[in-house]
Design goal:
This protein is an all-alpha fold and 192 residues long. It is 69% helix and 0% strand. The chain has eight helices and no strands.
Length: 192
């Protein structure tokens, strides 16, 4: 609820009208703000940029909520806005960011296979940190596709609709993004 109040206060300071949609907007912010922030953080790689992007997203949602036609689900509409805001920010700042589920990262030399559960947990955390450091290095479309596929668990068809690209292009971007990230991780295997 606190996030909704901050965003509403910002909207009111910017001269946006207070209307019956404010209660709806508060509910939308409460429901989606955490996931929007996390998606923005994965795509942009910085807390500050993710916070600004989240505010931009909800300012756009606030301004368009009354016009939402329901052609897609509310969550799909919000993910599309979030993805577009992040891609635009990345183009402006020349940021190339992505994140991926580290379940596909193989431990080097099998050294983790005989380790204790605690050591495996430490290895997984360290691996995730390295993946997160590689985030700013992938192209924007690959970033968006990988983030939506692995973290938002969207299908190729859903991603295609969100990003306005053919399903084949989604598949290609996912494949290339995986390859690039794999190459980056192999280059950093000494850090693992």
């Amino acid at each position: 609820m606190y996030a909704a109040q901050i965003l509403l206060a910002g909207a009111n300071r910017m001269g946006m009208r207070k209307s019956r949609t404010d209660d709806t907007f508060k509910g939308v912010v409460d429901l989606y703000s955490g996931r929007v922030f996390n998606l923005a953080l994965r795509m942009l790689g910085s807390h500050e940029d993710a916070e600004e992007a989240t505010q931009d997203v909800f300012m756009r949602v606030h301004g368009s909520l009354e016009d939402f036609r329901g052609d897609s689900s509310l969550s799909t509409w919000i993910w599309r806005i979030t993805t577009n805001v992040c891609l635009t920010r990345r183009k402006k700042k020349n940021i190339d960011a992505v994140s991926i589920d580290n379940s596909e990262i193989d431990p080097p030399d099998g050294r983790i296979e005989n380790s204790s559960r605690q050591e495996k947990s430490v290895y997984a955390h360290e691996s995730r940190e390295i993946v997160d450091r590689c985030i700013p290095m992938l192209p924007p479309n690959e970033s968006a596709v990988i983030t939506l596929f692995y973290f938002e668990e969207l299908s190729y068809e859903e991603i295609s609709g969100l990003l306005n690209m053919p399903v084949g292009t989604v598949s290609t971007a996912l494949h290339r993004g995986r390859q690039r990230l794999g190459e980056m991780l192999r280059e950093r295997k000494d850090e693992l």
